[in-house]
């Protein structure tokens, strides 16, 4: 009951439609009860903040609220992508995940939460041609450094689209590398926004980049190259 009340409060806080709290609770139950949950945080009393609160805090951002198509890069347990799909039923959300066992979990989660506007893509993000240039927003949470996220996201974004990266503390070197990589990819830094405080959010920020010009045709590079030879990092 305590967890149910807190989920309802979270839904009210973000102005979600009736029924959203029930579906978010179903996601919590699956995270807690599925033996193959791809997350170390599964207990509902922790996951409400660590997962749901963190994911839904991005609803403060206008580009995300207005998006028609979102791609969640490295979706894992569906956070933030599936939580956002529940919150934004008018938005199509692609949950891109390379590991088949995580995709199996995501498929179960879509069914458990009755989320018809989310679909699972079992692919490396660099090897998904159907997604090129097709998204208003790309989201990424706990995936990698900013330069890597820019390279993953840029080819998937339409002109004017926005990368929203969930990050904790980011050093000057990572920020500078992200800005340099963005410049090669047709992106421009669009600011860093502090997420609205909630338990566990002491250092959480959204790093945003907007696609202002077409991404060069040499991107995406072959799978794995972005991690091995990251853009924006002095050699």
Q: Segments where pLDDT lies below 50 for 5+ residues?
A: none
End-to-end CA span: 54 Å
Strand count, sense and closure of the main sheet? 7 strands, mixed
Classified in CATH, the superfamily is: Vaccinia Virus protein VP39
Helix-strand topology string:
HHHHEHEHEEHEHEEH
Structural class: alpha/beta
Helical fraction = 25-40%
CATH third-level topology: Rossmann fold
SS element count, helices: 9
CATH class: Alpha Beta
Report strand order across the widest sheet: 3-2-1-4-5-7-6
Q: How confident is the prediction overall: mean pLDDT?
A: 93
Shape call: globular
How many structural domains does the protein architecture include?
1
What does this structure look like?
The chain has 235 residues and is of the alpha/beta class. Helix content is 38%, strand content 21%. The protein contains nine helices and seven strands. It has a seven-stranded mixed sheet, with helices on both faces. Helix 2 (20-33) crosses helix 3 (44-56). The relative contact order is 0.14.
Helices and strands, with pairings:
Blueprint: H1 2-13, H2 20-33, H3 44-56, H4 62-66, E1 69-73, H5 81-87, E2 92-97, H6 100-112, E3 118-122, E4 135-141, H7 146-153, E5 157-167, H8 172-185, E6 187-194, E7 205-211, H9 225-228
Helix pairs in contact: 1-2, 1-3, 2-3, 7-8
Comma- or semicolon-separated keywords:
about 240 residues; alpha/beta; Rossmann fold; seven-stranded mixed beta sheet; 7 strands; globular
In summary, what is this structure?
The protein is α/β, with parallel strands linked by helices. The chain has 9 helices and 7 strands; from the N terminus they run H-H-H-H-E-H-E-H-E-E-H-E-H-E-E-H.
């Amino acid at each position: 009951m305590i967890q149910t009340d807190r989920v309802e409060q979270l839904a009210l806080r973000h102005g979600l439609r009736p029924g959203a709290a029930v579906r978010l609770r179903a996601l919590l139950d699956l995270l807690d009860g599925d033996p193959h949950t791809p997350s170390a945080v599964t207990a509902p009393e922790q996951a409400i903040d660590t997962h749901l609160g963190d994911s839904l805090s991005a609803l403060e951002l206008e580009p995300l609220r207005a998006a028609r198509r979102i791609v969640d890069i490295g979706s894992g347990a569906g956070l933030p992508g599936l939580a956002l799909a529940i919150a934004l039923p008018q938005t199509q959300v692609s949950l891109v995940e390379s590991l088949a066992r995580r995709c199996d979990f995501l498929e179960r989660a879509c069914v458990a939460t009755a989320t018809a506007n989310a679909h699972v893509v079992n692919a490396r993000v660099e090897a998904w041609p159907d997604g090129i240039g097709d998204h208003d927003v790309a989201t990424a949470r706990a995936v990698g450094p900013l330069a890597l996220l820019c390279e993953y996201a840029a080819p998937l974004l339409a002109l004017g689209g926005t990368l929203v990266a969930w990050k904790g503390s980011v050093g000057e070197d990572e920020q500078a590398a992200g800005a340099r990589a963005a410049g090669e990819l047709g992106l421009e830094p669009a600011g860093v926004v502090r997420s609205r405080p909630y338990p566990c959010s002491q250092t959480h920020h959204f790093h945003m980049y907007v696609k202002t010009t077409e991404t060069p045709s040499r991107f995406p590079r072959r799978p794995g190259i972005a991690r091995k030879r990251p853009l924006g990092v002095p050699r």
